[in-house]
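Bumping with the actual sequence this time:
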Amino acid sequence: MKTILKTCIIAFALLLTISANAQEKPITFGIKAGMNLSNMTEDLEADAKIGFNIGMTLDYAFTSNLYLLTGLDYSLEGSKEGDSKINLSYLKLPAHIGYKLPVTDNFKMIFHAGPYIAYAIDGKYKAGAVSIDAFNDDLVEVLGYKMKRFDFGLGLGVGAEFDKICVGVGYDLGLTDILDIKNSATIKEITGIGDPKGKNMNAYLTVGYKF
């Protein structure tokens, strides 16, 4: 995990350097933050939970309207059921193709879609006062499975830019089964399902600033 964090810090420094030297180039750097509503498309019954996201953005203009929209996000996701919940803290790297439609001189509509990759730097299963590492075999003893750290999926969104202020809504759907089943008997005893599948779902709202 230290290697992942160092890589992210280096990536952040590089993006800052690029932004500082990109005044005459088709690159725009920004920051954003917002709220998540996440769940998992799993065979187990679970409810959506509220989280948050914060990150940096980098827009690269192919043309005056067509862009590569990327950056690095910290996103708190997961699911809940009754008094138990799973909190998963992801570093996410989207790579979306976006179209910015000018409406006025200072106002643009944005439409974007594309893949993302993500790595969970932390995860906890909580039930009442009990808290267990979601990636540790201790969770297997309780539920019969643990979580996988890597995720990959597709996302889409719409937004608006008001001069340097931007707002957006979007949705990410994971394509990776993030449940690592280790004891089918235990999980079947708890849920009645021997081999459940789980993929991330996350809807988000963000507000940001472009430098």
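The tokens above came from a reply further down the thread. The longest helix spans residues 2-20.
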